[in-house]
Amino acid sequence: MQYAILGDLHSSVEDTKAVLDDIRLNAKNAEIIGLGDLYECRIGKKKAKALNSIPFEEAAEYSDEFKQLLQFPSVRGNQEERIMKVTGLDLFLTLPEYIKIEGAEIIHGHQFKWSSDWKPFLEQIDASIVFFGHSHDAALYRKGTKKAFQYGQPIYLKNKKYGVNVGAVIENREWCLYDSDDRTVTFMKAQ
Ligand SMILES: [Mn+2]
């Protein structure tokens, strides 16, 4: 089965449209799954601590046009959690923290420990392949080290453990194609 995985949209209409078009063009039968941080929270981390009932329109970058683009399941990101915190609304509680797909797991990534230079500690994850986002830095990890990749070139994964940082929709227009039958991962980038 083919999966098209995208995350860190941060409310960008143009970048999200470009990525969804690219998915339709390159993998029209793939199941699309989101990695969270769909929306951008307008309130910073520090300020958010003291707030609890501000209106949704103030808390989040939002448009009907953007919402219409979100026709796929997704996990919850830290932006969704912060929007819920500052509004006091349960808006994104229906988004799960993890989604299991064939041979892999999907999680936003803010739940991991990260080093100060944004290296994730993936030892905490049991799944053979984990897809995540959060740092806006597309990368393939094997045993804690980054492996080289080229956009559009399938990578055949061995029967071992891997971490795949899918990158970000916002600004980078990145997404990942995962084929669970072939056990391949292809980093993709829309124009
Ligand atoms: Mn994030």
Explain the overall architecture.
It is a single chain. With 191 residues, this protein is α/β, with parallel strands linked by helices. The protein has a single domain, classed as Metallo-dependent phosphatases (Purple Acid Phosphatase, chain A, domain 2, 4-Layer Sandwich). Helices cover 20% and strands 24% of the residues. The chain contains 5 helices and 11 strands; from the N terminus they run βαβααααβββββββββ. Strands 3-4-5-9-6-7 form a 6-stranded mixed beta sheet, with no helix packed on it. The radius of gyration is 16 Å and the shape is globular. The model has no long low-confidence stretch (mean pLDDT 96). Manganese (II) ion binds next to loops.
Labels describing this entry:
6-stranded mixed sheet, 5-stranded mixed sheet, 24% strand, 191 residues, globular, 11 strands, alpha/beta, 5 helices, binds manganese (II) ion, Purple Acid Phosphatase, chain A, domain 2
Brief summary:
The chain contains five helices and eleven strands; from the N terminus they run βαβααααβββββββββ.
* Helical segment count: 5
Number of strands: 11
Low-confidence stretches: none
Please give the alpha-carbon distance between the first and last residues. 25 Å
Question: In terms of topology, how is this protein built?
Answer:
Blueprint: E1 2-6, H1 13-26, E2 31-34, H2 45-48, H3 56-59, H4 64-69, H5 78-87, E3 98-101, E4 104-107, E5 129-132, E6 139-142, E7 145-147, E8 155-156, E9 162-165, E10 174-179, E11 184-189
Parallel strand pairs: 1-2, 4-5, 5-9
Antiparallel strand pairs: 1-10, 3-4, 6-7, 6-9, 8-11, 10-11
Bound molecules: manganese (II) ion.
Residues 37, 77-78, 108, 110, 134 line the site of manganese (II) ion.
